[in-house]
């Protein structure tokens, strides 16, 4: 059977099927039998080709099929394609051309992705093609969807990580808050203990910065200072003890810094117009780097003790003088030797700072 040329007649596609007829007693056309005639069958190609070229239900937008019915290596080829659902003849000038490894240029100039399949029997070629834009549009949509999914996944992951971090940070902050509360309670307990201990002492105890202002004092110091609030204003030692005691206090600061602590006993100072005897102790407060950032001062009033000792010394002198006078009266021949011995003994006791004999 031979397929004839497809032709257009009265807007209808027709093609002929030519079948050879051999004699009954012949073996057949393929076996070299005699051909006694041919049968020509004219077939209307519209309905047949329309079913072949019509896109199926699973086809995408921009996908189409067309048929090359007269392939020419050079020159124009004849094709059949559908227009408004009806097969139509057309010419393919120069045949299909490649734009690159994947893209073809179709018969109407579109850039397409194409696949070709030969038809068994006639020398026809079925071409299935889809436009490049239509082919890659789902990829663009998939890319956009993938980006959206990636963004949503990243956002969800970030939200989860942020939630975990927030929970961990909350636990950490809660733990730090507990530690700070415990530390504050311990500091407050130590402060109360320090205030109770220093408050029970009659000594004047205070703390001052290196630049001079007093920042803390015990109860005795507060009472001595007239109930001043050290946090409300800057008060210096000279404001509390008066200018006459400033020299002694400065001397204590210098020696405390150089000797890492000093004690000055029974120093006579004038406080409030009254002569007093005090024991002064100064000690620096140092940071981890060894630099002093404050000084602790302690003043103990020993005026009563000093005056009591002076009275005792005076009584001892009077007693020694009375005994000496009694000896002279009993033995007038000593010629003042006992008195001179008394003076020598008192001078030696004073020079040796011996309070028992002095």
Describe the model:
This protein has 358 residues and is of the alpha+beta class. Helices cover 41% and strands 31% of the residues. It is built from seven helices and 16 strands. The strands form three sheets. A seven-stranded antiparallel beta sheet has the order 7-6-5-11-10-9-8. Strands 13-12-16-15-14 form a five-stranded antiparallel beta sheet. Strands 1, 2, 3 and 4 form a four-stranded antiparallel beta sheet that branches. Helix 6 packs antiparallel against helix 7. The longest helix is centred in the middle third of the chain and has 68 residues. The protein is rod-shaped, with a radius of gyration of 63 Å. The protein starts with a strand and ends in a 7-residue tail after the last helix. The mean pLDDT is 76.
């Amino acid at each position: 059977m031979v397929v004839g040329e497809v032709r257009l007649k009265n807007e209808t596609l027709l093609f002929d099927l030519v079948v050879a007829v051999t004699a009954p007693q012949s073996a057949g056309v393929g076996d070299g039998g005699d051909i006694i005639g041919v049968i020509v069958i004219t077939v209307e190609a519209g309905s047949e080709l329309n079913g072949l070229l019509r896109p199926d239900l699973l086809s995408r937008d921009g996908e189409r099929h067309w048929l090359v019915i007269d392939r020419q290596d050079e020159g124009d080829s004849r094709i059949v394609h559908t227009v408004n659902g009806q097969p139509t003849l057309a010419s393919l000038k120069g045949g299909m051309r490649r734009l690159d490894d994947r893209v073809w240029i179709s018969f109407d100039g579109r850039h397409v992705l194409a696949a070709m399949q030969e038809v068994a029997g006639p020398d026809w070629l079925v071409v299935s093609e889809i436009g490049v834009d239509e082919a890659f549009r789902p990829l663009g949509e998939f890319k956009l969807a993938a980006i959206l999914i990636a963004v949503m996944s990243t956002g969800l992951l970030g939200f989860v990580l942020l939630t975990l971090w927030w929970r961990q940070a909350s636990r950490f902050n809660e733990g730090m808050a507990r530690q700070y509360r415990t530390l504050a309670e311990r500091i407050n307990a130590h402060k109360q203990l320090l205030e109770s201990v220093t408050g029970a002492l009659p000594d004047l105890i205070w703390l001052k910065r290196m630049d001079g202002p007093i920042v803390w004092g015990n109860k005795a110091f507060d009472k001595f200072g007239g109930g001043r609030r050290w946090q409300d204003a800057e008060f210096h030692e000279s404001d509390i003890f008066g200018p006459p005691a400033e020299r002694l206090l400065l001397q204590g600061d210098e020696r405390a810094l150089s000797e890492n602590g000093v004690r000055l006993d029974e120093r006579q100072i004038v406080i409030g117009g009254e002569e007093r005897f005090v024991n002064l102790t100064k000690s620096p407060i140092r940071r981890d780097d060894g630099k002093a950032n404050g000084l602790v001062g302690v003043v103990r009033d020993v005026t009563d003790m000093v005056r009591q000792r002076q009275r005792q010394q005076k009584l001892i002198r009077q007693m020694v003088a009375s005994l000496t006078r009694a000896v002279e009266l009993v033995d007038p021949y000593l010629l003042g030797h006992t008195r001179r011995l008394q003076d020598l003994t008192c001078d030696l006791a004073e020079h040796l700072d011996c309070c028992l004999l002095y």
